[in-house]
Amino acid sequence: MDQSMRFALGSIVIGILVLALKYFAYVMTGSIAFYSDALESSINIASACAAAGALYLARKPADQNHPYGHYKVEYFAAVLEGVLIVLAAILILRKVYMGLTEPYELDFSIEGIALNFLSSVINCVWAMALMRIGKVHRSPALQADARHILTDVYTSVGVLVGIALVWATGWQMFDPILAGIVALNIMWSGWKLMRESVGGLMDEAAPEEEQIAIRALISKFGDGALEAHDLRTRHAGHVTFVDFHLVVPGEMSVLDAHAICDRIEEGIADKMPGARVTIHVEPENHAKHSGIVVL
């Protein structure tokens, strides 16, 4: 089991622990804001399960039906997380409406507030670790899970501030109003997550800085070629796909042209682990005199 999968499974365990702490905080205080916080944590567990399943499937080798691999399944998991986040927000808004129309009493239990604060600390530490591992392994599923958990942390901090305001002012309407603000923030977070994931499914190009790095590597390791053009990139999970046309002298042998391609592929793979490079070799009469000039 690799590191990313261990962290994905760890998110499930952390999610269950945090949910238990927040639920008991809600039971002790009766706060709708604490209820909204606990409900979001239940979505964290479902999201973590989706991320773990996606990571498992994404690492399956290519087969006859999926010759390019299963990498994009991570984006489906991230989209599912976004949908679950929006669903949680809708359920919270329903609870907010009930709180505004049906009076209820808050119990300012120190134990309940302490449990909610402890759950926030655990979530914050875990989210930071998860984001770091997600970036190292370039996993959309892990990074989406980390952002979801960080949203939960921000929510919890806001909820604690709101409970303090209710206690200080005696105005109990702060509690459902704050829960409503939390719900809207959660909904916005879910929308952004779905938008980013759909971008991956639609084969958006790699970020500009990454494309600049690829061009520099082609120029550096393409000695013997004349130019490279029509560079295309896309991400699929933790893998970056790169393809371009490489122009070589017309009299160059296939063996020598192949050696240049090998050198470029190795150079890109060394700087960008997991990259999949496809090169189309062309004779010099196909040169466009644009694109990447080989040094």
UniProtKB/TrEMBL annotation:
Signal peptide boundaries: none
Transmembrane segments: 7-26, 38-58, 73-93, 113-133, 153-171
Membrane topology term: Multi-pass membrane protein
Gene3D superfamilies: Cation efflux protein transmembrane domain (1.20.1510.10), Cation efflux protein, cytoplasmic domain (3.30.70.1350)
Compartments it resides in: Cell membrane
GO biological process, one term: intracellular zinc ion homeostasis
Predominant localisation class: membrane
GO molecular-function term, one example from the UniProt record: cadmium ion transmembrane transporter activity
InterPro entries documented for this protein: Cation_efflux, Cation_efflux_CTD, Cation_efflux_CTD_sf, Cation_efflux_TM, Cation_efflux_TMD_sf, CDF_Transporter
Segments forming domain Cation efflux protein cytoplasmic: 207-284
Cellular component terms (Gene Ontology): plasma membrane
Residue ranges of domain Cation efflux protein transmembrane in the record: 11-202
SUPFAM superfamilies in UniProt: Cation efflux protein cytoplasmic domain-like, Cation efflux protein transmembrane domain-like
Keywords from the named record: Cell membrane, Membrane, Transmembrane, Transmembrane helix, Transport
Pfam families per the UniProt record, alphabetical: Cation_efflux, ZT_dimer
Family: Belongs to the cation diffusion facilitator (CDF) transporter (TC 2.A.4) family.
Database matches in PANTHER family: MITOCHONDRIAL METAL TRANSPORTER 1-RELATED
Protein name: Protein p34
Source organism of the structure: Pseudovibrio axinellae
Classification lineage: Bacteria, Pseudomonadati, Pseudomonadota, Alphaproteobacteria, Hyphomicrobiales
